[in-house]
């Protein structure tokens, strides 16, 4: 299920990005030859208003093919078509290149706003919690009693008992204290997850808490969680603040990683590749749809910042080329443009393979 969600998230984010390129290219008078949903091989398509809309076999995003966008598409007969990318002003070219990133940012802002309006599950302390707050599993220790009993992240605790003893007040502290008082008995926990109610039995064990190895536990972290809804005007404002703050944090994080990579001190074990993101998507989904939407918004902002990096084959790298042509007032040799973009693509693929291998080694 996590893999399906990962591809769904990836599909939507890439489609949103490409739609940004598409709509601005159309508005600036460029000829868009194809808007592809998914990647080839092509299944079927329909031409409408000069653009062929195709549906392809690989559902991992989409693409836009703009006339004259690639160097090899221009000058077949020594003439640059007036409706091609290369024939338009540098401002129009830059607008098209930036449009994909802009759409990713706007999409994240919309998702944040929706989450705030629908209601975001928020951790609250016992003093401020309302009667609607529920005790929720936020982390499960691998191979601990809770993990072996298949107690999932995001589960809402309904009741807890041991023998004839039953816990009546459900809080993180009372949960832990109850285990201490009944550490020689099987702990029966009733919980709700995915719309279903279940019951499991766990035997507490010591050594699960690093700074308190003598303390009996079942290997979970818990919080009181309740849904906090906001009116639309506050949701839109808070979404704006969240978008700006998250963009700032991501920019700092990626910049730091790049600097440390150059210095040879980067810790790539903390970087998640495709396989790692599959797990993160699954974890987010465990907490419900709003958590998945929040995670999708954050990934969208990550894609926006990464695409703006001045690296060949990325939008940022192509913006650099547009900038160079603007300053020098002459086009860069198309052959070299193609070579540089190919080099950038190969390097990105090698990076993807490296990060994916890192994900695999973490699982072993």
Give the tally of structural domains.
Answer: 2
The fraction of residues in strands falls at 15-25%
Main sheet specs: 4 strands, antiparallel
| Physical arrangement of strands within the biggest beta sheet | 6-5-7-8
Number of helices: 9
Give the proportion of residues in helices: 40-55%
Could you state the order of secondary-structure elements as H and E? HEEHEEHEEHEEEHHHHH
**What is Rg?**
26 Å
Would you tell me the overall average pLDDT?
84
- Name the shape in a single word: elongated
Unreliably modeled segments: none
Terminal residue distance: 21 Å
Number of strands: 9
The chain-level structural class is: alpha+beta
Q: In words, what does this structure look like?
A:
By secondary structure, the chain is an alpha+beta fold. It folds into 2 domains: 2-119 and 231-363, no CATH class; 122-228, Pdz3 Domain, CATH 2.30.42. It is built from 9 helices and 9 strands. It has a 4-stranded antiparallel beta sheet with strand order 6-5-7-8, covered by helices on one side. It has a 3-stranded antiparallel beta sheet with strand order 3-9-4. A hairpin with a 2-residue loop joins strand 1 and strand 2 (51-66). Helix 1 (2-27) packs across helix 2 and helix 2 (90-118) packs antiparallel against helix 7. The longest helix is centred in the C-terminal third of the chain and has 32 residues, at 232-263. The radius of gyration is 26 Å and the shape is elongated. The model has no long low-confidence stretch (mean pLDDT 84).
